[in-house]
Request: fold
Amino acid sequence: MRKTHSQEHSKPTKHFGFWNNLGSQAIQDVAQRIDRAYTLFFRNIKHGIGTSPPGFKKVRRYRSFTLKQAGYKLLLDNRVVIMGKEYKYFKSREIEGDIKTLTIKRDALGDFWLYFVTDWDIEPPEVRSGESVGLDFGLKTFLTTSDEEKINSPLFMRQASSKIKKLSQKLSKKKRGSRNRNKARRNLARAHRKIANQRKDFHFKLALELSRRYAQIFIEDLNLKGMQRLYGRKISDLGHAQFVNILGWQMYKNSCQGTKIDRFYPSSKTCSSCLYIMSELPLHVRNWICPKCSAEHDRNINAALNILRVGASTLRGEDVRLAPASSLCRS
Reply:
């Protein structure tokens, strides 16, 4: 009988013997990841979205695996048994609900992180009444509120750019495979992790402050990937996508309502006083005068006011007072 390709390259062969180090469920999850990647690839082709086929990482670059019902066991005193070996871990918060999957990830520094996916019933928070706000994300300012407050981002990557440059130069001068190169790589990874932690801390504190101050928060549904292609490192340093995810969770915990308005709504070009829409408004124009009602507008504040008006109309909650555009204008 002729052997198939899959039979010739099975786990018992010497070349693929490393698969025996993983449990069956971890291998099944790898196959499911490949299936999801190809499903997305063929769906994009069907819809005319140009994309490249899924890439495959080398074994030494594979940084995570997932276990489902078997392969691990939680013990007391923050200990866990994974694949027959016992480890001690630091618990950042209590695990609530029934554990569905456990993912073990290794970061660039070689530290391991445990991610638990749980299934538990959450009672919907009670809706509270209070002030509403519209948020407009920008490049020069991190965000602008409809209350005319402008919040700047510390831009941690820009602050540490000279240090990152020096560490990158030291890494490039080290001999490949040497201990000094590995040490330089870890120093660079440690600097990048510090920047990421600083940015996340800034996002968490800001999201917590906004969700406690306001009862309704409205933002735009931004095309963040498109913005990143246009503006590159600046968008990555601002971290709008991460902030939006953190803000959503903080809003839920603090009984705060909100919604996203359509990304194609011309919030910057619409006069928040008379709703006149400018035909063109270049990005470098930060202040403009409405040709219809002569109202003077700051570009970002005007956009935040329009986001508030449209968001409140879209939400249509009983506790949301729909205000006319004229009352929201600050000309």
About this structure: Residues 132-150+208-328 form one domain. The chain has two domains: 22-119, 132-150+208-328.
